[in-house]
Amino acid sequence: MQIKNLLLLSIITGIITGVVIVVYGLLTDFLKHILFLGDPIESISHLPFWYVLSVPVISILFVNFLISKVESVKVYGVGEIAEAVVQNRMIFGIKDLILKIIASSVSLASGFAVGNEGPSAAIGAMIASKLHPLFNLPKELLRISISIGASGGIAAIFVSPVTGIMFAIENIAYNFVRDYVEYLIIAGVLAFSVALYFLEPLIFNYSSGKFLEYRYLFASLVFIPVITFFIYFYLWLKNSVLRFLNFKISEKFEKYKNYIFGITGGFIIGIILLISPFAAFSGHEVVYYLINGKFNLPFTLIFLIIVLRIIATAVSIYANAVGGIFIALMSIGALVGYGFGELLVNYGINIEPFYFAAIGAAVFMGVNMKLPLTAVVMALEITYDYNVIVPTAIMVVIVSYLVSLNFELHKLRFKIGENR
Predict the structure, then answer these.
(1) How does pLDDT run across 116-141, given as a tens digit for each residue?
(2) Backbone angles phi, psi at 58, to 5 degrees
(3) Please, which of 12, 116, 173, 260 could form a disulfide with 253 given CB 3.0 to 4.6 Å?
């Protein structure tokens, strides 16, 4: 009876989550077009500068107002859900669900560089936690229900069932894989099936399938130190921006700091929007354009957008924009990879830059979020191309190791300092 109820919970959670995620995705897109009077990539250059600056400022003040009224609007991203699963706790109301959807949609639509995987996981988890008691399931299985809902939410918003399921397993439900993975699979697949009809997946249009061209594999070995450098650069610049903003504002405006954060962050996002809309928003369009060769950008402009996207990501977190960083990290990695590819082409090497955009997107996300399996599965599911999958698998392991060396060196220096 318990297995039957858990199966029914998985099916109903998957379907309902898929529907709610579709509403969330379409609402975000609708608000984006309303706020910027059309497709922002095209319309921003025609709008008054004061209007572009005011959209993110007013939007983030509204989001911070919602957070001040209902704290759960901000909390329960993917990391918080993982912690809630371990501690077997998660209590939400319908009000929390609606406000989280509104706050996240407004954050994303107004230009903040956050992703939608965190809120999507939270939405699925909220739905599952509400359905759990209706099926007379024991309290100790609440963590399984939460994991099932989160898996469905991620699979739906990614419009990518295997990547979504793997993301949930690796990030949320790792300890439950052996006994309960089938329920995550069914919820994820059903939620994806609903979302596929309404939302747009990331698709690699130039896949050569199982044909492996070794020039891409060899070029990837050269790419390893490049993307490693940019991961260090991302971590350094992000932390520097956050430290600077916190130092200048936190101590002086403690009482109203969230609103000051919002105004400051919104103003910076507005400036970034005026410089280049591609440096703001979630980054979904950037990844799609780059992996399909729809961009033709000078090398210097690519580097400028990389810097601006890193700043936009840090500022979005600082301003309390509601969302995750999965797709934002992918966009930075795609830019790094595409720029690397363009550089090789300039030196007469016969490769297609969009291959390295796909590799860079997967590796940059996988290393920074410590999700190597998700990175490989994502490369597989988006591209179905060995020239992306094989280099991604090799690079995500090697680059993760190289990045970890930095932390080991810091620990070693700390221990030497202590001994002295």
Answers:
(1) 888 898 888 888 888 888 888 887 77
(2) -65, -40
(3) 260
